[in-house]
Write the structure tokens for this entry.
Amino acid sequence: MSDARNLAAAAVESHVRAFFEGHFVEAIELDLGPQRREAVADLRVLVVAPGPRSDSWAYVSAGCWVETEKDGHGLEFVMTAPVRDQRFIELTAMIAYYHCAGHQLDLEHSMPIGEPWVPGSACDHLLISLPYLHGPDLEHCPLPDGHVRILWTLPVTAAEIEFRRSQGHEALEQRFDAAGIIPTDPFRSSVV
């Protein structure tokens, strides 16, 4: 691992651990295999247990920034879920690979999962949004020569993605607010 990779990964991990002080945080190193290793060579998923800041689990990528940064600025991703499960570690890795393999996700983008978020869920896409559950203190991670922005990957339905395409991101977020969705509920109803 290069010095830049080490510094960036350490900065993200330190930032996440500081933000989630009082929570158990485990760093899981992932090898995506020979076909995908080049896109995200040193991927880690930080698994954050419930604690004083949040009653849900958080899964944070660490490794995207170094692969895609531009002028010192880049992204990592956080997913929140109701339980600890290998499924969410794998989805976080999938997001990282998708982003680093040329799709360049950003705020208000979406990506198909290709199957339900969890078995039986209507949510089969992820919407890249501001980390509303955690706020700007998690979102902004300073680095010595730039910064990492940690964006939220919210599970959504295909119908919600179609609504966003026709009505706009803000209109969809207003629907989420009006419905009072629980974003970690894999069985929530679609808001459209």
In short: The mean pLDDT is 91. DSSP finds six helices and eight strands in the chain.
